Amino acid sequence: MQGSFQRMATVPPSMQGAPASEAGAFGGPAHRASAVPATRVRRRRNDAWVIVSSCLIAMFTVFVLLDAFAIERVQQSVREADLSSVLAAQSETGASAETDAGASSGDAGTGSGSGDSSDGALGAAADENDEDDSEAASTTGDSDSQAESGRRHGAHGGPGGKDAGHAGGSSGGSGKTASSNDGTLDEGAGSASTAGTSVGSYSDDNISIQVSQVRAYDTDIYVADIQVSSAEYLKTALAQNAFGRNVKDSTSNMAEAADAILAINGDYYGFRDDGYVVRNGVLYRDEAAAGTDALVVYGDGTMASVSQDEKTAQQLVDDGAWQVLSFGPTLVEDGELAVTADSEVSQAMGSNPRTAIGMIDPLHYIVVVSGGRTGDNAGLTLYQLAQVCIDNGATYAYNLDGGGSSTIWFQGQVLNDPSSGNRDGEREVSDIVYFG
Q1: Distance (Å, rounded) from C-alpha 152 to C-alpha 18?
Q2: Per residue in 66-88, is it b (16+ CB within 10 Å) or e — as a string?
Q3: Does 12 sit behind a cis peptide bond, omega within 30 degrees of 0 on the bond before it?
Q4: Which helix (H) or strand (E) element contains residue 52?
Q5: What's the pLDDT at 297?
Q6: pLDDT tens readout for residues 249-262
Q7: How far apart are CA 250 and CA 263, in angstroms?
Q8: Which 3 state secondary structure label does DSSP give 325?
Q9: How many CB atoms lie within 10 A of CB 197?
Q10: Could you give the count of Cα atoms lying within 13 Å of 219 in the half-sphere of its Cβ?
Q11: pTM of the model
Q12: Domain spans, the chain
């Protein structure tokens, strides 16, 4: 027995259940047990870095999207509870503006050459040297030609003949234009524009443009009065001459590439998957934007809003649509305000840079672009934008993309100061509307 105990004493410690600390020295189970937790720790650290990185990427993506699209849509929101009283006050201001504008016109007729402006009024007097440049009149094309065009293109006809071009974007304007029965522009009556500071003018046989700057609602506003002999001179252009969601360029680049005379940003169709897109008579997208009115420019030079719930894009083309844009809302119809309190709240809150296009008469158009989101420019509400259009003679007007997109370009120069509030300079957009 004693010998057996002695032999057991010589058995290696690992065979006798040696302590874990001693076994570990020989690479035994204790070593493996300590290695497993270390591996798990490294894995958990890697997993944590993956989670943190993913969160950072997601946060950055959300920030970029908000910065590009959402933030500027909700800045300077209007309190819904006070909206009715605000609109009522603005309505009174608009009426005052019309009275002041009429008084200013009377003063000009007696040779005073000046007019007082008040809050909400557009009564700034034009420079005497620019009075001739502010004279213009509505134009109509050849009725026989339009009737024949109507038989070819639909109920509203199509654009006139394309044999006459413009004289080039750098040509100076005579400022004496009116309508004639042969579809060209001749000397004639005065413009419907409210008095303002003349910015420039352009005129050739087919296009007459008068651009002025007015100050109203604590905002610089550019108003262009445009007359053409045919709807073919009201054109649109796509960024990089291509249709697509992610195809963008600045308004000025597109205007220069198109040899435009005057251009504004369009409806930024690439921001959405729906909304009719017809450009220069070509149907690009027929997906309706439910509950939205589209702006339709017909081949006979008329403009109208058409519900996308009631007509397809192809039906509009069959009816003679030359351009179809989808943004809104409609601002003016039959010379009356069409924007409502619901439109103010649900579609575009508060004062912002704005872009609108409208019609005084067929082939006689108006463009309005306002500043905003800067110290010197409060921006316009939809109601104020509509009132400016009416004050300048619009019988119909439609709201286009605004905010940082709002840009007006005339004969090689951006007139306004595009701003999104957190960055200055032109925003790249999908399309433009231009005359040329």
Answers
A1: 103
A2: eeeeeebeebeebeeeebeeebe
A3: no
A4: helix 29-65
A5: 99
A6: 999 999 999 999 99
A7: 11
A8: strand
A9: 14
A10: 23
A11: 0.62
A12: 1-73, 80-435
